[in-house]
């Protein structure tokens, strides 16, 4: 018998091939096991067993033992099937689950605080929905023109379009000349984009304070500690944004920014951890997202990089830890304290 697995059955998104089914049955029977022992029991090659373990872990049917990380344990079939179907439904409905959850939570907070807050928060203007890019840009330009103290922002998504950068230059320059402090967190992946890097250097020369983070939860703008703007849902094919004036909500978003700011690295500095010693912050983010069961596409999107780059990073981490599969990578990363 060759190392090629049998044809999978079931829907493509949740397919289990014969190897995966055999490994899953064996782990269920023995309650736990390690890939080498499973290979001997099943008469399969180590490579096939590890590939099956990776697939089953991705589908939440296997997970590392909490007591012995070198062993794997099976999730019960009923629970595993339910988890697997839930994950597939979530990926179909929400391509960025974490971001969607954050948005939903913030919208709920905005509604609650707008109804129960102080006199200013009871204003019908405490939450304003901006519809379409024209309306969003008009309000952002107005905020930039009126700000007097500080502008805080998250800029996820990696490299920014040239036209967007050029459009923001005069507004940001005028504000900084007025003495407004700009603190911005970009994704670390922007350092590979020449245009975005040039813009960031220009902003820093004008007095902007720039830091980099491996991941960011969402796009965010906080102006003068009084107004915040976050993304909304697409409606009738148009993007929307939420303009928030509720003081408790703005304070919460300000605190969120400060938490990320504290751990972010100043632009232009070397990473805090050298690859020869341990993972960089970006590599830790990759490992954490993989451990959470995220697929390559989701990880790449969160870091603002291409899927090809993400897969190269995973391959390099796998080689550095001497792992032969993604499952083993997760185990060894956990043992090493990298996750």
Write down how many β-strands occur, each being a DSSP E stretch of 2 or more residues: 11
CATH architecture descriptor text of the largest domain: 2-Layer Sandwich
Low-confidence parts: 1-14, 117-124, 271-275
Main sheet: strands, sense, barrel: 8 strands, mixed
Counting structural domains, the number is 3
- How many helices in DSSP terms? 13
Report the span from N to C terminus.
37 Å
Let me know the average pLDDT: 78
Secondary-structure element order, N to C:
HEHHEEHHEHEHEHEEEEHEHHHH
CATH superfamily membership of the largest domain, which one? Answer: Endonuclease Chain A
Q: Under CATH, the topology of the largest domain is which?
A: Endonuclease, Chain A
- Radius of gyration, in Å, reads 24 Å
Order of strands across the main sheet: 4-10-9-8-5-6-7-11
Describe the structure concisely.
The protein is α+β, with helices and mostly antiparallel strands and 339 residues long.
Notes on the structure:
Helix content is 51%, strand content 14%. With 339 residues, the protein is an alpha+beta fold. Mean pLDDT is 78; it is low at 1-14, 117-124 and 271-275. The chain has 3 domains: 12-93, Orthogonal Bundle (Arc Repressor Mutant, subunit A), CATH 1.10.10.10; 97-266, Endonuclease Chain A (Endonuclease, Chain A); 281-335, Orthogonal Bundle (Arc Repressor Mutant, subunit A). Strands 4-10-9-8-5-6-7-11 form an 8-stranded mixed sheet, sandwiched between helices. Helix 2 packs across helix 3 and helix 11 (296-303) crosses helix 12. It contains 13 helices and 11 strands. It has helices at residues 18-30, 35-42, 46-58, 77-93, 97-116, 133-146, 162-177, 194-205, 247-263, 281-291, 296-303, 307-320, 326-335, and strands at 32-33, 62-64, 72-74, 127-131, 150-155, 181-187, 209-213, 220-223, 227-231, 240-244, 265-266.
